[in-house]
Amino acid sequence: MLKRIPIAYLFVAVLFFTSLGSGAVFAADGQYYYKERYCHDPEIIKKKAEKLGIETKGKDTKTIVKEMKEMKIKKAAKELGIPTDNKDLHSLIHEVRDKRIYNAAVKLGIKTEGRTTHEIFKEMMTNHADKVKS
User: Model pTM?
Assistant: First the structure.
């Protein structure tokens, strides 16, 4: 049972970050690498950014991807009723994550009062992993 918990954490973390729409676009293997790191296909990124209404002229791919991530996180925050004014991206990401954990806990019937999101998440993965994964 204990060996499944780290896998469950990994699974939920992957789900969380993909649900935020990290803005990552994957090209064919081996095409876009720079200094041994994966890079995004600039043309695909620009097309996606333009569809989202992001100005791309005079910006490099890294800046465009950053703006796309920020836009998607702010959109998720607004959908969850989290105010985005005067907040840095890092704290907003944490608030979105915490709100999603609390919402999932309520759906599963887990008590949330007086508990941290870490404690709630741990209970979700320990006692309700089968429901969380589906």
Answer: 0.62
Model pLDDT for residues 33-76, shown as the tens digit of each residue: 555 555 667 888 888 889 989 999 999 888 998 999 999 999 99
For residue 17, CA distances in Å to 13, 23, 92 come to: 6, 10, 13
Q: Can you say whether residue 54 is alpha, beta or left, with left for phi > 0 and alpha for psi between -120 and 50 degrees?
A: beta
Alpha-carbon 10 to chain mean position: 13
What is the DSSP pairing of strand 33-34 with strand 37-38? antiparallel
What's the CA dihedral at 101, 107, 112, 116 to 10 degrees? -10
Neighbour-count burial for 15-24, b at 16+ CB within 10 Å, e otherwise: eeeeebeebe
